[in-house]
Fold these 2 entries.
Entry 1:
Amino acid sequence: MGLLRAAGVVYKPVEQLDLGPDSNEIYVEADIKAPRMGGLLAKIFAWILESRIFGALAFYILKRLNRVHKFISNATVEEPPMFVPLHPYVDLDEQEVIEIDSDASPAERVQQAMNCLPLTSENSLDAFKFSCFRRWTIADYSRAYRNGEITPLKVAERFIYAVHESSSRPLSIAFFINYDAEDILRQATESTLRYERGAPISALDGVPIAVKDEIDCSPYPTTGGTKWLHKVRPCTGDACCVARLRSCGAILVGKTNMHELGATPSGINPHYGPPRNPYDPSRISGGSSSGSAAVVCAGLCPAALGVDGGGSVRMPASLSGVVGFKPTFGRIPHSGVLPLNWTVGMVGVLAGTLEDAFIVYAAISGHLPSHEPTTLPPKIHFPLLNSTNPISNIKLAIYGEWFNDCNEEIRLCCSNAVQLLCERYNWKTVEVTIPELEVMRLAHYVTIGSECSTALSSHLENLGRSEFGWDARVVVDIYGAFNSNEYIKAQKLRYRHMQIHNKIFAKADVIVTPTTGMTAYSISKNALKTGELDYVNGGTIIRYQIAGNFLGLPAITVPVGYDKAGLPIGLQFIGKPWSEPTLMHLAFAMQVPTV
């Protein structure tokens, strides 16, 4: 198809880019050329892509229409490739932090995190009986257990009943792919005995924590949202992050639902049902950590683990009205996580509050196992959230055209939230230009697609595609269409965008954006059995997520309001490498009532 070859962009050196507010760099909006597909249309599209006659032509047209040829395949990029977004550790001299002993156990780190939190009122259970819905925090569970007001065993029994009820309604919420009542009760009994002896392991002892079904957790298989993956990759033990939670006494209550293979941001799974949004069960909870977001939103767990390869922790957290925290690439061990996207995926935390996200992060962070790629082990600092001296002189970078590329209700809500923060703490916004954001989105898509296709290739040869949901089948077909030239070009662009973001962070402490470009959309009936491909809505949801994954940057989303339909809106802070304490300070400041 040489005669139809699309012209490629010639990227000028980063040094020549103007990143100031008056830059002539044009903001390129996403222009996704793909119809929404579900039901029969999704099946037909899969057959076309897999056809020997029409498949190659279809892939060529898709790449050309969606500007992959222009921005990636045929582009001229002078920068060297960067295959893994590992950042050398730099001491950022952050405000109001404490350094943690790198040899501290998970339980010791949890206690140190608790020591960093402000004191809370000693409310008894009776104080909540007649109030409106309120999520229990980790501190609430710990306090109630210590005071003997309730036991972990009683909590486990109520949890099992609530999950059963939510699964047996006419409209199942579909929180979990697997949960084992007997195993939950066993863990709860052991925890209850520890409290009776006056010897709980940590504040997490007896606290229910859910785990995305992309992370190994005994005694469950790890399905990745599929009907087959656990048959060819058996789970042989806990992932490192899960083992650390277990060592703190947490009750691991099961494997949460997710989009099959994390394929799209909707979270809809045709095999196990769509995890529905507790704010409106007719709508998505967001993906791919959809079940983790829904179970935290519903108040069944104060926190859950997710995996964030393309916003898959932060998007569902925002759409479901909870906190979503993705640390720096390499901060949390990735061993025991499905190797679907090894240079963009990262274990993250979804929680009802910033404090609970912090406590779980404290438990699972720390030195990496020696077999994982890393530079010198980064130091661990915790934010002193109980400090009477709020952090000062914070500069928030805002790229106006990008920030405003969302629906009007989100734009107003997030703008007002930033304004309130700046007024209360005397922080400043810095207007910047971040060029080539659409290029970065496409480069990330080529990267995550190529890595996922490679990870699945041996299984596809043996199994074929018959056991896939139709939406995941189409996505895997598209992933397999990227070639080595495109993958290398994408890694060159990764290095390029790392340099661009380093220049932005020389001007500001964090980048602030809405978390998603829209609130949760409705679940279509024809998606229930086949899944759905909605690249237009998906592109709007993922718009602000890519830097966190492609560049390995830490990011956090915190709820800041609701749209007219009562659906949650999130605000996101993207930080410098290893700046987790500053991000938690900012999220905590946003969470604290301003009146």
Entry 2:
Amino acid sequence: MASKESKKKNSGRKIPGPTNPMVTPLLTDQYQFTMAYAYWKSGKHRERAVFDLYFRKNPFGGEYTVFAGLEECVRFIANFKLTEEQIDYIRNNLSVSCEEGFLDYLRGIDCSDVEVYAIPEGSVVFAKVPLLRVEGPIAVVQLLETPFINLINFASLVSTNAARHRFVAGKSKTLLEFGLRRAQGPDGGIGASKYSYIGGFDATSNVAAGMLFGIPLRGTHSHAFVSSYMNLDEIKDKALRKKDGSSTCQDFVSLVRDWLRKIERSDSLRSNSAETNKSELAALTSYALAFPDNFLALVDTYDVMRSGVPNFCAVALALNDLGYKAIGIRLDSGDLAYLSCEIRKLFCSIEKEFGLPGFGKMNITASNDLNEETIDALNKQGHQIDAYGIGTYLVTCYAQAALGVVFKLVEINNKPRIKLSEAVSKVTIPCKKRIYRLYGKEGYALVDIMTGENEPPPKVGERILCRHPFRESKRAYVVPQKIEELLRCYCAGNSDKNEEILPPLKDIRERCIQQLEQMRPDHMRRLNPTPYKVSVSAKLYDFIHFLWLNEAPVGELR
């Protein structure tokens, strides 16, 4: 099993650089270099340090987060090297007193002595639990802090946002990411497409993301395409070959006209007898001639029920005569619940009246600034929508701007360290740790527990005391039916550990879906979810509080 999932370090595998060429060693805060210089100046730069990367609170008012961005971190560290141009820039901007010896030190840094342990990308994770543990020379690891936080913060936020949209939409619906034009710049657009896919979306409109990551592409046409046509005479090439290739219809336009007359006189359209917009009919006919196998039309340019849908049906029925099956329609405005129900009734009526099996089941896609709340409202109203195109609220993470990832020192030279604060949420959990997820008899995750690195691991069927890290009265015994150790080695440094192989994107997406299914429904719900328990072992709890008391200054009253 291990040989399939991991490789020995130094196996000669070449890891490509970060997807974004802007991700270089200079993509960091200046104080990382000032600290590195101060470490070097005092001779501390090679001291072995351990840092935890985690977040303090789950986003969007929820009780879970989807971890993403790990692959880009591994790519970054595997290719970490400062160029001469970058070192010259540091020389000119760090300090007038910066010594040449420090610049020589920077020239030699390549992260070959850095170890990275992480929870697999696509996992469901929780506040306070380390997503990454980074070990190495303190000056080097400090230089990784800002880029690691940057690469994980937005990625995990978008993946979580996507997972929340998937949860409210349901498993059966198709989710399409349409956010490129509203994203925060090119990098925001590319990243949002990738991480929305991890979080459970099915496809993207972003062509660049499709090429880079192999994400399925979806897209039809805009209102501009429809309104650019004036009449059917603009269509010059009217011929369309049958699906089976047996013959060619020389005048597809006439076939569409014939079907429009039939359905205008049919019982199906008796309550929508207005004359349709013929420029719209021309646009839909032209689009069907270009894409007869993938005809999905936008129908709200003029009037959905009086023009758009009847025109679409005429084109779809003409395509059916030639052996093609239209995909469906897209709604981008109006009362989406009501319109989708009316359109479904019309499709079913036409199927029955003209004896066309499957016509009533054609796809209805909705867009128009959708988000979690609007999809939830549509569910409560009742609708017939099969797919959602979601953009602005998804890719910008409109409901929450950032995840709040932090990177904290927990050990140096094998000595545990703790950061104290008046705000208990900001107190760190010291030392190098192991993390386990404990599952109950129903298969759901019950609790994550952190232990000291050298503590014996929990065992299936044996009772273990799980304690809140800081609240003395919050504790519970757990008898796990399954145990999963969460941290795995992705960069082995100079150790002899096995390195995990970075999985393809579709496997990360599949892991995310499987992980979400292992969560209890009350942890997942949109409103007032049950908090998931994150705990420490009894031994680690005692040590945290011993160190806390040892490091906190004692006041004196006079």
